[in-house]
Inverse folding.
């Protein structure tokens, strides 16, 4: 998605990629789906199924309100590469082994599918290797978790759906999918003393799965198929300043707790944000620091918000007050609220980096406690300019019409922006 965006702005892009080493399924949220639509990732979208129910069994209660789409990651990843190729990206198939900086550029050492060692040079490197990234530089790591996945063959056909359920040492994600199969992933603490040796993992997982009363009915006559897979599922944030022409995106930049079901959305939104950042660094190097700041602040704000939302959700499961798994996640990262109220602090006007027409530049924005990075526009109307305009001429039908002309937006947009200002006591 990032490479498609950069191609649209006329940059030369090469992807070096190897296929995922395991076959897995994930749930795609509506926001992530809309992000892919916005980026016109047609081939990837064509692999995504219809919405299914997402059931949450949490703290002994059952919630059914949510929905998500099941994504078969190998097909989806192939779709993304087709979209990139169609956008004119050069795709090299192989495994990246090392990325090193020289005075002029970056050198990527990689092994192609025939086993040959190759070297590719680039002015800018974007690490999108997900959780397999080398984690260069500064990282903030949250609770260390592992996911153990196992496919099961069901005794009878079931409608596709996903659900989560909890147990003393973690939680489970259950996705019933095609061909009467289900994928069950258990999320456990990665602390070594809490996990059995690898050869006993599968037995331990089967014991846990059979203990989950929520799935007794569905798993009657079911049996495990294939090998168990283990994936790192820890939370981590890259805290580098990106000053060396080396950037990271997606899980290679910030990995959130899979409990959120939002990792794909965060990766989509990070990729869309990085397009104007790279464009600015290449074409307006004088604004490079502003662009890097924009990206870093976005990652940090999103990461800590998601971490605190996750903490609050873990706190709603109260049945295992002495379990190390639950205690650790109910306490991390801190006690700060996940969402600030818009009126916690008085709003202020400040210069902050914003994205405008494919570039990052500084604009006057309104900073509020619920929008610490500031809000520049609402419905396309620039808030600070609008606020100054109505300060001078007042709010009347005539002035709204003048604002429509002045800011080249619809009357609806002006009304929406005015309501936003009014709600914060700024009109
Ligand atoms: C167990 C688990 C379950 C999850 N479930 C969900 C979910 O239900 N919904 C959701 O929204 N999110 C979920 N997530 C999060 C989601 O998987 C990630 O946020 C998302 O895949 C990140 O995308 P990415 O492109 O950054 O990384 P990835 O999707 O991991 O892609 C990285 C790519 O880089 C390739 N690669 C890796 N190393 C190399 C190398 N050395 N050389 C070349 N290529 C390489 C890989 O093969 C892969 O194709 C889950 C995460 C985990 C760990």
């Amino acid at each position: 998605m990032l490479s498609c965006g950069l191609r649209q702005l006329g940059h030369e892009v090469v992807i070096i990629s190897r296929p995922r080493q395991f076959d897995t399924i994930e749930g795609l949220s509506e926001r992530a789906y809309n992000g892919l639509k916005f980026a016109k990732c047609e081939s990837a979208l064509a692999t995504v199924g219809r919405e299914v129910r997402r059931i949450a069994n949490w703290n002994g209660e059952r919630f059914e309100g949510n929905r998500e789409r099941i994504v078969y990651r190998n097909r989806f990843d192939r779709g993304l590469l087709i979209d990139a190729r169609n956008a004119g990206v050069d795709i090299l198939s192989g495994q990246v082994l090392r990325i090193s900086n020289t005075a002029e550029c970056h050198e990527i050492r990689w092994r192609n599918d025939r086993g040959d060692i190759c070297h590719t040079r680039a002015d800018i490197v974007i690490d999108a290797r997900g959780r397999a990234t080398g984690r260069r530089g500064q990282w903030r790591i949250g609770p260390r978790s592992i996911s153990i996945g196992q496919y099961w063959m069901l005794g009878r056909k079931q409608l596709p759906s996903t659900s989560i359920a909890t147990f003393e040492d973690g939680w489970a994600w259950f996705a019933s999918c095609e061909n009467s199969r289900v994928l069950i992933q258990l999320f456990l603490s990665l602390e070594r003393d809490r996990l059995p040796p690898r050869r006993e993992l599968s037995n331990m997982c089967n014991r846990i799965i059979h203990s989950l009363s929520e799935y007794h009915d569905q798993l009657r006559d079911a049996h495990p198929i294939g090998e168990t897979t283990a994936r790192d599922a820890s939370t981590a944030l890259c805290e580098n300043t990106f000053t060396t022409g080396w950037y990271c995106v997606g899980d290679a930049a910030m990995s959130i707790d899979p409990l959120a079901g939002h990792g794909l959305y965060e990766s989509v939104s990070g990729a869309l944000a990085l397009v104007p950042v790279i464009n600015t660094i290449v074409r307006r190097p004088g604004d490079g620091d502003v662009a890097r700041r924009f990206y870093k602040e976005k990652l940090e704000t999103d990461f800590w918000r998601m971490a605190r939302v996750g903490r609050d959700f873990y706190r709603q499961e109260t049945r295992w007050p002495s379990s190390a798994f639950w205690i650790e996640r109910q306490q991390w990262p801190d006690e700060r609220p996940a969402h600030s109220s818009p009126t916690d602090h008085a709003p202020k006007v400040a210069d902050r980096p914003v994205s405008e027409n494919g570039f990052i530049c500084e604009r006057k924005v309104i900073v509020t406690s619920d929008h610490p990075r500031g809000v520049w526009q609402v419905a396309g109307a620039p808030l600070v300019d609008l606020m100054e305009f109505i300060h001078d001429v007042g709010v009347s039908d005539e002035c709204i019409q003048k604002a429509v002309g002045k800011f080249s937006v619809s009357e609806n947009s002006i009304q929406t922006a005015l309501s936003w200002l009014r709600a914060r006591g700024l009109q």
Observations:
- Residues 182 and 358 are 42 Å apart (CA to CA).
- Residues 16-20, 26-27, 32, 77, 95-96, 128-132, 147, 185, 231, 233, 250-252, 258, 261-265, 267 surround flavin-adenine dinucleotide (CB under 6 Å).
- The chain has a mean pLDDT of 93.
